[in-house]
Amino acid sequence: MIHTVLFDLDGTLLNTIDDLADAGNWVCAQHGWPEFTVEQFKHMVGNGIPKLVERFSPADARTPEQLAATLAEFTARYDAHKEDKTAPYPGIAALIDALNTAGVQCAVFSNKADPLCGKIIEHYFGAGRFVLVRGSRPGVPTKPDPTGVYSLMQDLHADPASTLFVGDSDVDILTGHNAGLPAMGALWGFRGRAELTAAGADALAGVPEDILDYVRTH
């Protein structure tokens, strides 16, 4: 049986895309840059906020200095408005509670900046549902590099043979596989079945309960 489940955050536990898009478009509007639809933002996220900022910045606004300034603008705006429209996906809180009741430890591993991760998880899920919450940290490569996963699993005392990675994008499936873990795709997230299947997902979850079923049978 699976004893540890590592969850991606954006698009897996929380539907954060509207707040991310709003913050990105707010920054674009301040500079007179083109703005983007929510659907377009779904394909910009997943590789961390610095990469998101690079993707919505025009080509002539991508010097290291400009990107650093834009990142600071975006981070401040998003941090102030990250709970305007964001909400857990239906059934996620019940899933985490059921996993905890079954003795499965749950943790979060995201490419979102580490300080933002802890605050947003505690706001929506309270304290105690997740053993550890970890985001992008300086000096640690972002997903799909497995370095951060190895560190998280070491802190959790998690056995790779009984650990599952769950996420909604190809980045998450590759992260799990790069760390030697089975990876399950969440179909309710930002990317969808085709991307998750192409990335080689070991299983797909149409609803959160599918994750619980997988854990109980593997």
| Number of helical elements | 10
Distance between the termini: 5 Å
Q: Which range does the strand content fall in? A: 15-25%
- pLDDT < 50 runs, ≥5 residues: none
Named CATH architecture of the largest domain: 3-Layer(aba) Sandwich
What percentage of residues falls in helices of 4 or more residues?
A: 40-55%
What is the mean predicted local confidence, pLDDT?
97
Any idea what the shape is? globular
What Rg is obtained from the alpha carbons, in whole angstroms? 17 Å
CATH superfamily of the largest domain: HAD superfamily/HAD-like
Level-1 CATH class name of the largest domain: Alpha Beta
Sheet with the most strands, sense and barrel status: 6 strands, parallel
Helix-and-strand structural type: alpha/beta
Strand arrangement in the largest pleated sheet = 5-4-1-6-7-8
What is the fold-level CATH name, i.e. the topology of the largest domain?
Rossmann fold
Keywords: Hydrolase
Pfam family, one: HAD_2
GO molecular function: hydrolase activity
Protein name: HAD family hydrolase
Describe the structure.
The chain is α/β, with parallel strands linked by helices and 218 residues long. It has 2 domains: 4-15 and 87-217, Rossmann fold (3-Layer(aba) Sandwich), CATH 3.40.50.1000; 17-81, DNA polymerase, domain 1 (Orthogonal Bundle). Helices cover 47% and strands 16% of the residues. It is built from 10 helices and 8 strands. Strands 5-4-1-6-7-8 form a 6-stranded parallel β-sheet, sandwiched between helices. Strands 2-3 form a two-stranded antiparallel sheet. Strand 7, helix 9 and strand 8 (203-205) form a beta-alpha-beta unit. Helix 3 crosses helix 4 (64-81). The longest helix is centred in the N-terminal third of the chain and has 18 residues, at 64-81. The radius of gyration is 17 Å and the shape is globular. The model has no long low-confidence stretch (mean pLDDT 97).
